[in-house]
Each structure stands twice: as structure tokens, then as C-alpha cells.
Amino acid sequence: VAKRNGPNNVCLYDPSMNSVLDEKIRIERDLRSAIAANEITPHYQPLIRLETGEIIGFEALARWPRADGTVMQPASFIGVAEEAGLITDLFSNLLEKACRDAVEWPAGFLLSFNLSASQLTDRLLGLRIVQILGKTGFPASRLEIELTESVVVREMDAALAIMTDLRNAGVRIAIDDFGTGFSSLSQIAKIPFDKIKIDRSFISAFGDDDRQMKIIKLIVGLGHGLGVTTLAEGIENEGQLEILNRLGCEYGQGFLFAKAMPSEEIAEFLRTHEPASIATGTTAR
Ligand code: C2E
Ligand code: MG
Ligand code: MG
Ligand code: MG
């Protein structure tokens, strides 16, 4: 216990920090054992070809079911895992599970998977991924690794090294949350990637003013010019879908189609999903 009013008035400890610290230590401890027990699992949100409504794959999104019946969202524990040095274990567990689930999906379906900022310093990342692909039999060409634009810009050299590694292994790269990371055009020209995921904030701002739409049009044009595809995140209504279709955005995901679901629900979802009814508002032809 620190001295409150020592000679130099040093205060290293303040009782009010107690609960915050306790809470953090508790989550960290719970997280450690949850990872060890494989309790954190990926849920899957469908990725849709907007013109037809067909499903082209799923994005894996981490979910932590708690003892009290609630489910913890990634925003509440990915950062903790990074700080506690647990991200590599969590990543490996989740990716392996996701690949095992994804080998059961229809042929050609993509598995999209998010990378954390702190993983860019992991020199063995490429190897780890290749090893998991080998172990599970999921083809590299159907795995898409997502890197957030702001992270790529901040850690350009490390990101470039990893992207190059992964692409050489046949894995696809998507730039996530695009439009919020302020990458320069000269940086974009340098990085190897296959898909731009347009940040949800642009899509949810439709209607407020048409400048958001003009920016999307620009991003879609940029993608086409570079020979990559574009996907819009967070499509919640038919109006947004219609605009995105008009702007030529090829893919999308969002609550309009489905929220992330556990693996057990995928077969039923695929059975009942009617592509054309989503795209046109009419029943399948
Ligand atoms: P993200 O990669 O941008 O993933 C999309 C997020 O948007 C997901 O949130 C998804 O549930 C949400 N979303 C999708 N459609 C809609 C919509 O129509 N409306 C709204 N309001 N939200 C929508 P989620 O699952 O909470 O994940 C948040 C972030 O946490 C992800 O953002 C991703 O960066 C990160 N994350 C998730 N799983 C993992 C993981 O396994 N590893 C790492 N490193 N990060 C992960
Ligand atoms: Mg993502
Ligand atoms: Mg992400
Ligand atoms: Mg995103």
C-alpha cells in the first residue's frame, strides 16, 4: 500500500481505483479461462451479392456466452485480450473453429475473418494461418482476412509484410471499415488487397445528405479502377439496398439480411433464404 502523504507527496494508490482494477482483473481472468476452455465462439453474418441477393459467404464475429446467459460482444473483450497478451490464442482457437465450420458450407463460400491491430507484430501469423488451413482442410483461396483501414495506415510496414505473406499463401485480403482510416491514395496504391469494405457510418448516413452517396460512388469507382470488389457494411433497410445497387456496389452485409448467427443455425438459414425476394421485394423466380 502506497503512502498517502509521504515526504514527496507520492500517491501510487487511490482506493477509487480499486473497483476499476478489480473489474479489469476479473474480466482478464475470466477471459483467460474462457479461451482455454474454448468457450468463445464465432458467429456468422452472411455476405450478400446485392444484385441477386445470393449468399457468397459469411464473416466470423466472436461471441462470448457468459454464465449468466448473456453474450458478450467483441468490443468488450477483444481489447482486453490484446492487452493481456491473449489475442494469439484467441485468434487461433476462433479461426480453427471457423474453418471447421466453413468446410461444411456450400462450395465456393467465403469465410471472412477479422485481424486485431496487435497481431501485425506477430511474425508467425502467416504460418499460424497456413497451419490452421492445413489442419482443417479449408482452402486458402476461400479465406479472407480483414484488416481495419486505420490499422493499416498506422502500421503500414507491418501491414504490408503480413498482407504480402498472406496473399502469397493464396489468402484474400479485405480492408475493413474503409473511409474512416484516412489512408492516402499513395498508400492505397501500395497495398495489396482484394476487397474494400465500406464503413457502416456511410450507409447509415444515407438520407441526411447526398454527399454520403457521392462518397460511396467514389469508393466503388476506386475499387473498380483498382480491380477489387466493394462491400457495404451495415445495410439495414430496402432503401439503402436500392441506393447501393444503383451505385454499383457489388456486395453487402447487414441486419436487413441477417445478424450474426451461431453455426448450428446456418443450414436452416441457407434452406429458407430466398435470394430474389431480398433483392427485388418479390418472390424467387
Ligand atoms: P467489423 O469487422 O466491422 O464487423 C461488423 C460489425 O458490424 C459486427 O459487430 C456486426 O454485428 C455489426 N453489424 C453488421 N451489420 C449491421 C447492421 O446492419 N447494423 C448494425 N448496427 N451493426 C451491424 P460485432 O460483431 O459487435 O463486432 C464489432 C467489431 O469487433 C468487428 O467490427 C470487428 O472489428 C471486431 N471483431 C469481431 N470479431 C472479431 C474477432 O474474432 N477477432 C478480432 N480481432 N476482432 C473481431
Ligand atoms: Mg469486419
Ligand atoms: Mg473489423
Ligand atoms: Mg467493419
UniProtKB/TrEMBL annotation:
Its EC number is 3.1.4.52. GO terms for molecular function: cyclic-guanylate-specific phosphodiesterase activity. It comes from the Bacteria. Keywords: Hydrolase, Membrane, Transmembrane, Transmembrane helix. Residues 24-274 form the EAL domain. This is Cyclic di-GMP phosphodiesterase Gmr. The lineage of its organism: Bacteria, Pseudomonadati, Pseudomonadota, Alphaproteobacteria, Hyphomicrobiales. The gene is gmr_5. The chain holds residues 242 to 526 of 526 of the full protein.
